[in-house]
Amino acid sequence: MRDETEVREQYEFLADQLDSEEMRHEGVRELFTHYKRALGWVLEEEHM
Question: What is the pTM of this model?
């Protein structure tokens, strides 16, 4: 299992990618949105 710091770094990277102007294609944006949600759930579950 990854440590919290690594997961947070990946979450922040994906959030930045979603905000990027290069992410105009809806399929790519949707894919990153799913990853972002999944990482958020992992972080929430570990702190419950």
Answer: 0.46
**Please, which contacts does 12-21 make with residues 24 or more away whose CB atoms are closer than 8 Å?**
14/39
Burial tier of 17 (Cβ tally within 10 Å: 0-12, 13-18, 19+): middle
Amino acid at 46: E
Query: At residue 21, what is the residue type?
Result: E
Report d(CA 41, CA 25) in Å as an integer.
25
For the record, the structure tokens of 10 come out as: 């990946």
Mean pLDDT score of the chain, rounded to an integer?
Answer: 77
Token pair listed for 26: 């809806």
